[in-house]
Amino acid sequence: MTFRATILTLYPEMFPGPLGTSLAGRALAEGKWSLDAVNIRDFTTDRHRTVDDTPAGGGAGMVLRADILARAVDAYADGRPLFAMTPRGAPLRQARVRELAAGPGAVILCGRFEGFDERLLEARGVEQVSIGDYILSGGEMATLVLLDACVRLLPGVMGAASSGVEESFESGLLEYPHYTRPVEWEGRTIPEVLRSGDHAKIAAWRQRQAEIDTRLRRPDLWERHEGARVGSPSGARQRTEDEQ
């Protein structure tokens, strides 16, 4: 099964963009996934190819019309999940990325202007997704992020099957810090435990660093991680040394 991405956008020339290079680009060329960027204006009926109108109730900006978007969505509806990239959506999580990467692909709506007519989102069961608490000019950049996160998980895309297992968010924690040669650089040395050859000690050190960094840098992730551990069948968590 090939992962198929259909992108409904006002700027199809933005694709594949970065997705045409590196791992994603190689996988695209090898047919491990496919990408089709579709111009929403192709589904208009007037000579000006109008896709938007003024917001009901007044206000600044323009809103993408439900009737135009529905024609575009319906032309590509085939059972794949339908997404709209919008700051009003639920935050994108690695767990959702894994689910999506395991499926047939997605149809993705890229917003512009003030966003979508809400009726389209309700009528077509669109899953609204946000990549962060900030505003972009449109949904295209967010779509690139979503697809890059998915494509790297497809079979045969990453060099080693275990490459992504210990990365940030896969276990609910940030990833531990990395080091490489030279052993000493500007008076800073690689931690001794990583040069010890003791794999058990190295694994314990990496786990501890992941927990410390997550707790300090992302207390929101740490709270979710701790809640999951406490609520797991294995019982309460074991405290780390600096908590004892």
Automatic annotation (TrEMBL):
EC number: 2.1.1.228
One of the record's GO molecular function terms: tRNA (guanine(37)-N1)-methyltransferase activity
Catalytic reaction list: guanosine(37) in tRNA + S-adenosyl-L-methionine = N(1)-methylguanosine(37) in tRNA + S-adenosyl-L-homocysteine + H(+)
Domain tRNA methyltransferase TRMD/TRM10-type span(s) in chain numbering: 4-223
UniProt record, GO biological process: methylation
Source taxon at top rank: Bacteria
Enzyme class, spelled out: transferase
Keywords noted in UniProt: Cytoplasm, Methyltransferase, S-adenosyl-L-methionine, Transferase, tRNA processing
Positions with a binding annotation for S-adenosyl-L-methionine: G111, I131, G132, D133, Y134, I135, L136
Localisation: Cytoplasm
Residue ranges of the region described as Disordered: 223-244
Classification via InterPro entries: Alpha/beta_knot_MTases (IPR029028), tRNA_m1G_MeTrfase_C_sf (IPR023148), tRNA_m1G_MeTrfase_TrmD (IPR002649), tRNA_m1G_MTases_N (IPR029026), tRNA_MeTrfase_TRMD/TRM10 (IPR016009)
Function, as annotated: Specifically methylates guanosine-37 in various tRNAs.
Subunit structure: Homodimer.
Family in the record: Belongs to the RNA methyltransferase TrmD family.
Protein name: tRNA (guanine-N(1)-)-methyltransferase
Originating organism: Sphingomonas endophytica
Gene that specifies this protein: trmD
